[in-house]
Each structure stands twice: as C-alpha cells, then as structure tokens.
C-alpha cells in the first residue's frame, strides 16, 4: 500500500479530475489536503469522504504565485508533513491565436505554469530536508504535441515538462520523485471553463471531451501510474498515439490533427 500513512496534497480538488482523485484516495489509509479557490465546494467534497477527519481543506489561488511559502507552511502544519503533492490545478483555452488577447496567454502561464512551479519550489525544502517526496504534475497530451485553439494552454503545459524534467534530475540525489501525467480527453468541465480570446469562459462542452474517459477510469489509471512511480504516463483513448507520431512522424501528426476538426 504505497499511500498508507502518507499525506497527500491535491490542488484543483473541487471538481473534475481533482475531485475524482480525492474520492478515490480517501478510501485508502492516508490523509489528504484538498485545495482550490472554492472553499465551499472543498467542504462539500470533504463530507463525501468516508473519513472526513482525514481530509483538510486549504483554499488558495494558484495565480497568487508570489505568496506560496505561507501556503506551504500552513499545509505542512495540518498533518505535520507532506509526502506527495499532486499539482492538478489549472485552466484551459479555446481560441485562435489571432483572436486571443495577450492577457489570456499571461493568465494561462500564471495559473498553469508559474502557480504550479512556485508551489512546488516552496515545498522543495521540506522534501529535501526529509530526503523524500513525490511531485505528480497533471499536464496534458497538449504538453507533448499541439492542437489549434489551444496555443497558450499548449505553451504552459510544454513548459511544465521542461521544468519538472529538470527537477527530477536535480533532486534524484534527495530521493525526490517526479511523475508527469498527460491526460487525453476526460469527461470533465474543462472545456466549459476554458478561456476564449477575450478572457471569458467558453461555457460549452466539446464533443471530444464529452466522449473522453470517465473521471473514475482516468483516476484509477492515474493512481496506478503514481504507485509505479512512472516518469510519464499518457492516459486517454486513441489520442495518445499523437505522442508517438510527434516523435517519429511529425508531418503525419500535423495532417491528422488538421483533419480532426477538434475544437
């Protein structure tokens, strides 16, 4: 039982994949800190867990990346330590480059990249002191290859791969592990909450997202990848073939994406 007696911290825990992870992991013998901006939703999820006393809520906004040290100190104080940080919080995008305000690109980098990096860096001294720790970073298949309407999102997710690959190398000596999870299409509200060109929400579901993996199936596969301490895991349906096409047949991938009409 790799999670037995461990303290797990999950960001983006109020909905979608994050909520699914909380509900799945709460059935195991561990303690969980759940974070997002939405304190009311976090408290509701806590009450859905079989042992609410093993769940602590810690609301904060990833966009406030200059304020992560006190957030980390508070998290450590809740159960005395942190063993595993699941960086799941983030936002998506659905707009053409030509129609997208630079403020939207900035917001995507602040939340998806800088917020995650700042939180992880603030926790790093705790991991190195303990000579133990595990970062799990939920990026996307869009962190491995790109698609139209997601330029800023792809840029932020690609950046996470660059940073956390370096983190894994620099701190192998401290027994700090890094697992990068790359979801394909998962049936969540990520498309509905995606930013469009002017920074407002799309407020509609993508067909591909609706037809994606169920949250339960995805979370079960993700938990197995964490248990195996994989460097990277690609979790989805046929769309994961894009990772390999990008590596070996990039022009073929380009043609297939252009024909797919994925929005």
From TrEMBL:
SUPFAM superfamilies: NAD(P)-binding Rossmann-fold domains. It holds the Pfam family adh_short. Gene3D superfamilies: NAD(P)-binding Rossmann-like Domain. It comes from the Bacteria. This is SDR family oxidoreductase. It comes from Olleya marilimosa.
């Amino acid at each position: 039982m790799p999670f037995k007696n461990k303290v797990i911290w999950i960001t983006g825990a109020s909905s979608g994949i994050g909520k699914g992870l909380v509900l799945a992991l709460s059935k195991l013998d561990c303690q969980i800190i759940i974070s997002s901006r939405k304190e009311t939703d976090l408290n509701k999820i806590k009450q859905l867990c079989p042992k609410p006393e093993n769940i602590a809520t810690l609301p904060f906004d990833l966009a406030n990346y200059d304020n992560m040290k006190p957030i980390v100190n508070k998290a450590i104080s809740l159960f005395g330590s942190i063993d595993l940080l699941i960086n799941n919080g983030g936002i998506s995008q659905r707009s053409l480059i030509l129609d997208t305000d630079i403020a939207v690109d900035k917001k995507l980098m602040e939340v998806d990249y800088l917020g995650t990096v700042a939180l992880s860096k603030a926790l790093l001294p705790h991991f190195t002191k303990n000579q133990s720790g595990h970062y799990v970073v939920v990026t996307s298949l869009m962190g491995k290859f790109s698609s139209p309407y997601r330029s800023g999102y792809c840029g932020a997710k690609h950046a996470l791969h660059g940073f956390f690959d370096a983190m894994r190398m620099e701190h192998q000596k401290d027994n700090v592990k890094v697992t990068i999870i790359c979801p394909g299409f998962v049936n969540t509200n990520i498309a509905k909450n995606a930013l469009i060109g002017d920074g407002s929400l799309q407020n509609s579901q993508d067909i591909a997202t609706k037809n994606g993996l169920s949250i339960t199936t995805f979370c079960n596969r993700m938990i197995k990848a964490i248990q195996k301490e994989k460097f990277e895991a690609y979790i989805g349906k046929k769309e994961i073939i894009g990772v390999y096409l990008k590596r070996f047949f990039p022009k073929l991938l380009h043609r297939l994406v252009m024909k797919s009409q994925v929005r």
